[in-house]
């Protein structure tokens, strides 16, 4: 009985930024649990496609640059045409820019906020509306960060965006819970992906970070799969507006 709660057979998930890193790990985890995948990327997600199809699931690649909201209608209509719509939305695409707060440029502010926060909101709005129109249950999972809870250093637009993701997750959950849409977030800790390459290549920062992680290691994309399947499945039907840290204990220190 309990395993059925996590079964995603026949469901369709839109996953943004899944050519690599955490997005790829979550797409593969969802496919393993039974989902077809609508992959939204700037570049062809060839490896992800190959691995999802090897699991016996269908895969649709939608080319989109989420620096603007322009591609959102097309993403949703392609999902509609191919799969009759999507049940799950993973807002994962994101970027980070690093510079001292005194030096930080307006370009680095806008580039990060546009993808991490603005497109996340408007894609959620379009997905949520489609669920309501079709009377379909929806699950939205936003990818937050430790910097949804903490200030960080040298990443002002990233901190603003990820703190905003936590707030928006609550707001959307408050408005849409009665409409059958669960909105939650996952806050990954320090994970070994392109996003943290600069930190991992800096011996001092890398030592400091690792020394503070109770689990004693950087996280991997596979570490997010359990939380993702949980929040995408019936098992989380009464979980709304929560941001779940998957951080090896970082926030507990
Ligand atoms: P990553 O390997 O750099 O992946 C980021 C993904 O976002 C890539 O697929 C990237 O596509 C996509 N993306 C960036 N800008 C885009 C745009 N304008 N349009 C469409 N897609 C775009 O890093 P990651 O660690 O897997 O990051 C995934 C998410 O987790 C991000 O939201 C990040 O902030 C968050 N996160 C990561 C960590 C960590 O420790 N790694 C911790 C907390 C939160 P391209 O490959 O084409 O650039």
From TrEMBL:
InterPro entries attached to this UniProt entry: 2-deoxy-D-gluc_3_DH, NAD(P)-bd_dom_sf, Sc_DH/Rdtase_CS, SDR_fam
Q: Which reaction does it catalyse?
A: 2-dehydro-3-deoxy-D-gluconate + NAD(+) = 3-deoxy-D-glycero-2,5-hexodiulosonate + NADH + H(+)
Alphabetical UniProt keywords: NAD, Oxidoreductase
For this protein, what is the EC number? 1.1.1.127
Decide whether keyword Chloroplast is in the record. Answer: no
Tell me one GO molecular function of this protein. 2-deoxy-D-gluconate 3-dehydrogenase activity
- Protein family (similarity comment): Belongs to the short-chain dehydrogenases/reductases (SDR) family.
Q: What is this protein called?
A: 2-dehydro-3-deoxy-D-gluconate 5-dehydrogenase
What does the organism's lineage look like at the top?
Bacteria, Pseudomonadati, Pseudomonadota, Gammaproteobacteria, Oceanospirillales
């Amino acid at each position: 009985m309990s395993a059925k709660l996590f079964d995603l057979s026949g469901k369709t998930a839109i996953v943004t930024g899944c050519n690599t890193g955490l997005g790829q790990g979550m797409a593969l985890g969802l496919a393993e649990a039974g989902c077809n995948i609508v992959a939204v990327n700037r570049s062809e997600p060839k490896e992800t496609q190959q691995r999802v199809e090897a699991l016996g699931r269908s895969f649709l690649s939608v080319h989109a640059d989420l620096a603007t909201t322009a591609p959102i209608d097309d993403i949703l209509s392609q999902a509609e045409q191919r799969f009759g719509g999507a049940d799950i939305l993973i807002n994962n695409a994101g970027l980070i820019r690093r510079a001292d707060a005194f030096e930080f440029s307006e370009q680095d502010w806008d580039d990060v906020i546009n993808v991490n926060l603005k497109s996340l909101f408007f894609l959620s709005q379009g997905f949520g509306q489609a669920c309501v129109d079709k009377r379909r249950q929806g699950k939205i999972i936003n990818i937050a960060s430790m910097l949804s809870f903490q200030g960080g250093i040298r990443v002002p637009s990233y901190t603003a965006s990820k703190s905003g993701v936590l707030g928006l997750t609550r707001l959307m959950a408050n408005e849409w819970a009665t409409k059958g849409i669960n909105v939650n977030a996952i806050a990954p800790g320090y994970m070994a992906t392109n996003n943290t390459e600069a930190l991992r290549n800096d011996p001092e920062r890398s030592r400091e970070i690792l020394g503070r992680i109770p689990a004693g290691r950087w996280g991997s994309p596979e570490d997010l799969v359990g939380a993702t399947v949980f929040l995408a499945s019936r098992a989380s039907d009464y979980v709304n507006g929560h941001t779940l840290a998957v951080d090896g204990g970082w926030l507990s220190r």
